[in-house]
Structures are given as structure tokens and as C-alpha cells.
């Protein structure tokens, strides 16, 4: 989140972050957003009868602020089909593996247990599945013999901070075209604005 806010501020991403939403009141992201002058909103999942009502509350918060692009980062809830439909092609997620390998939780541990020589991270559009949407960008990170889940995660995080802002920039410039499962990066600028 911070890398994207900083990219917007520096002008390398032609967009503006207008709100950060969390389902955890004490999430550091909320305070960090506020320190940049970005509105931080806590939506308490315990106030709602179920996921659908929670999703609708988050959806309202985003629609009220005229958000064009939703970026998931550390948001550990699966969003329902109604939410996904509302932002189809306008919602991205970052995942700490080279999808489709190791979706879901603890991707770094899964990679180490499987014995892979390379891991990495993936930015993808969100669909109704878990880490199954069309892939926008990926970065490869070699796995060392002495890696732990923590050391591998640290190196992957550095790549996440590089490729997530890049994916947002491409979207904001109107340079991403989804064709089935494939995302093509177009040359030039289409001029789309992203929030």
C-alpha cells in the first residue's frame, strides 16, 4: 500500500489513492494511510450477519468515494461474487507465489516444502476463485538452500513492492487488455485514471 501511495505522490503512477479500507481496527495500514493524508476506513465485520452484508458495506464505502480500481493487499477475506462482479476487471491482488502454484495461505511455506528452486509473486485481477484471476505481472525470486519461510517472504516482498505499483501504473494508463485468461500490456497510454 505504501509503495503505491508513494508512487502516486511522486507522479510515477498517474492516479490517486483516495481511501484505505480494513476489516481490522488496529491495522497498521489505516494509520499509515492517514499519515499520508489518505482516508482510512475500518469496516467491522462483527457488525454484519454474514459475508454478503459485510461485502455490501465495503462496496458502499468504495462507491461513495467513486473508487475506480480496488487493490487488495493483506486483505485476508474472500470477497463474494456480488462484490467481484461490481469491480470485475477493476480489482487486483498481489500473491506471494508464481501463480497458479501455491494459491491461498502460507505460499512461501508451501514453496519450501515442495522444494521449488524459484518462487516469486504475482499481481492478478480478482475473480470468484482464490488466486485464480488473470495474471498481470510476475516476478521470479530464487530459493536458497538455507531459506526459511520468513527469509523467502522478505525477498518476495521486495519484488511485490516493485511489481504492484507497476501493475497499477499500467492500469491507470489504460494499457492492460484482458483477453480470456491472458492480460496483454499495450504500448502507449490509453489515458485511464485509477483511484
Q: Look at the helices and sheets and give the structural class.
A: alpha/beta
Total strands: 8
Number of helices: 6
For the record, the CATH architecture stands as 3-Layer(aba) Sandwich
Instruction: Going across the biggest sheet, name each strand in turn.
Output: 3-4-5-6
What's the rounded overall pLDDT mean? Answer: 94
Q: What distance lies between the first and last C-alpha atoms, to the nearest angstrom? A: 13 Å
Largest sheet: 4 strands, mixed
Shape: globular
Q: What is the H/E string?
A: HEHEHEHEHEEHEE
Architecture overview:
The protein has a single domain (2-185), classed as Formyl transferase, N-terminal domain (Rossmann fold, 3-Layer(aba) Sandwich), CATH 3.40.50. 35% of the residues lie in helices and 21% in strands. The chain contains 6 helices and 8 strands, in the order αβαβαβαβαββαββ. The protein has helices at residues 2-10, 28-35, 51-64, 81-86, 107-114, 149-172; strands at 19-22, 39-42, 70-72, 91-95, 118-125, 135-142, 176-179, 182-185. The strands form 3 sheets. A 4-stranded mixed sheet has the order 3-4-5-6. By secondary structure, the chain is of the alpha/beta class. Residues 191-195 have low confidence and may be disordered. The chain starts with a helix and ends in a 10-residue tail after the last strand.
Amino acid at each position: 500500500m505504501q509503495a503505491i501511495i508513494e508512487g502516486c505522490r511522486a507522479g510515477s503512477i498517474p492516479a490517486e489513492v483516495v481511501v484505505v479500507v480494513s476489516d481490522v481496527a488496529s491495522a497498521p495500514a489505516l494509520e499509515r494511510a492517514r499519515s499520508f493524508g489518505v482516508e482510512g476506513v475500518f469496516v467491522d465485520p462483527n457488525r454484519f450477519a454474514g459475508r454478503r452484508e459485510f461485502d455490501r458495506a465495503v462496496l458502499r464505502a468504495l462507491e461513495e468515494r467513486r473508487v475506480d480500481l480496488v487493490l487488495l493487499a493483506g486483505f485476508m477475506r474472500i470477497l463474494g461474487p456480488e462484490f467481484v462482479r461490481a469491480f470485475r476487471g477493476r480489482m487486483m491482488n498481489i500473491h506471494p507465489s508464481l501463480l497458479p502454484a501455491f494459491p491461498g495461505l502460507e505460499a512461501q511455506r508451501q514453496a519450501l516444502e515442495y522444494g521449488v528452486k524459484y518462487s516469486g509473486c504475482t499481481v492478478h485481477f480478482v475473480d470468484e476463485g482464490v488466486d485464480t484471476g488473470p495474471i498481470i505481472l510476475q516476478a521470479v525470486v530464487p530459493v536458497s538452500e538455507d531459506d526459511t519461510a520468513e527469509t523467502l517472504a522478505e525477498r518476495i516482498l521486495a519484488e511485490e513492492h516493485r511489481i504492484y505499483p507497476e501493475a497499477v501504473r499500467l492500469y491507470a494508463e489504460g494499457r492492460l487488455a484482458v483477453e480470456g485468461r491472458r492480460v496483454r500490456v499495450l504500448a502507449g497510454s490509453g489515458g485511464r485514471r485509477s483511484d
